[in-house]
Amino acid sequence: MNFSRRALLKIAGISLIGAGVRPALEALGAGESPKTLASPNRLVGKRWAMAIQTQKCPAGCRECIDACHQTHNVPDFGNPKDEVKWIWNEPFKDVFPGQEHRYIDERLKEKPILVLCNHCDNPPCVRVCPTQATFKRQEDGIVMMDYHRCIGCRFCIAGCPYGARSMNFRDPRPFIKKINPQFPTRTKGVVEKCNFCEERLARGVMPACVEACKEKALVFGDLENPASDIRKLLQAQLTLRRRPELGTQPQVYYIM
Amino acid sequence: MFDAGKVLPGLVIFLVLMTFPFWYAKGRSAPPALPLDTPEIQKLSVKECIEPAPYMKASHMELLNKWRDAVVRDGNHLYANHEGKKFSMSLSQTCLGCHSNKEKFCDACHNYSGVKPNCWSCHVVPQEGRT
Predict the structure, then answer these.
(1) Which of A103, A108, A193, B66 is the one with CA 20 to 30 A from A38?
(2) Does residue B54 belong to any structural domain of this protein?
(3) What percentage of chain B exceeds 90 in pLDDT?
(4) pLDDT 10s digits, B42-85
């Protein structure tokens, strides 16, 4: 066979170009490619935050806690060792350890204060998560969990200074009284916490706890919006945050 | 041949063992029948899935992985298909909204092919939701 190296290289080059033609034509002829979009009726905020007006909380009220735990299929294992909680009450002296002194009113010292994940601006749980199962959403500051990725290492539980995270040491399904089919449950070996009702904000409704509160003690809104209710509240009143000296920049504000 | 008396029975035993899964499974595990005209399907007003059926049969798992990442990671809850039609990205609501029978729709094929997806350890099958 009489075939120069030059001719062979030419033909090889031309056939390589030819091989690229079909995929290019297919890509051009495919029409619109499928894509994902944010829902148009979602609530938009640049930095979601919550203010809790503790003076409005009636003694023994659990409306917000029950609403949240029902909405998110939070199990009730019935013992404090396995307890899973997204929002709960804690005595004042434990919520604000720096504010306690020997002359403080005894009633205030033991007063139950509502606590939840602070959705910190500088969240330690995100820093320690080895799989990025916990991450901070850049668009609105919510500290989210991807339960698909959680490997149950519990570094985040150690990292969170507020105790906002709970581990499922057992299968939670049998311990959920009433399963809400709109929201997934968790499985054994996964950590969970408050998600600022991210799934409800996407549908355009306020968080379940805010909606459930009859006293309007919980105010939820966008801190980057100067006209929002929460900004006005923070401007008008002195507010406390939990352990601000740690530098986590918690985004749940307390009005005493 | 040296040791034909040992080699030949050995070969036979080897062949029997190697082909054991094939003749053991024969007749026991028929591929699932997938009828397309059940009363449930007749009741649906739209009988088309969000993407063409061959693509869904071959790649639904990849699509669901993309959906998961879009919803959880990017906060996008809507899917626009080739025709620009929009769907809420939800396994329990959108998929099982039409494919209402999980045993016959999901499990029939997954059991036959020995696939064990762990979707349902967290996601709720609507009928199984206790109210």
Answers:
(1) A193
(2) yes
(3) 55
(4) 888 888 899 999 999 999 999 999 999 999 999 999 999 988 89
CB contact under 8 A, B75 and A184: no
Report yes or no on B14 lying in a domain.
no
The answer to whether A194 and A164 are in contact (CB under 8 A) is yes
Answer yes or no: do B78 and A37 touch at CB < 8 A. Answer: yes
Give the number of domains in chain A.
Answer: 1
Question: Which three-class secondary structure state does DSSP give residue A212?
Answer: helix
Per CB-CB distance under 8 Å, the chain B contacts of A29 are: none
- Considering the domain boundaries, does residue B27 fall inside one? no
Pairing state between β A48-53 and A252-255: parallel
Q: Taking an 8 Å Cβ-Cβ cutoff, which residues of chain A contact chain B?
A: 30-39, 42, 73, 135, 137, 139, 144, 146-148, 176-187, 198, 202
| Structural domains of chain B, count | 1
Q: What CATH number is attached to the domain comprising A232?
A: 3.30.70.20
- Output the six-digit token pair for B118: 């762990």
Q: Can you give the pLDDT at residue A215?
A: 94
pTM: 0.83
CB-based contacts of B28, cutoff 8 Å, min separation 6: none
Looking at chain A, the whole-number percentage of residues with pLDDT higher than 90 is 84
Q: What is the ipTM of this complex?
A: 0.83
Query: Which of A26, A35, A36, A139 is the best substitution to test chain B (most B C-beta atoms within 10 A)?
Result: A36
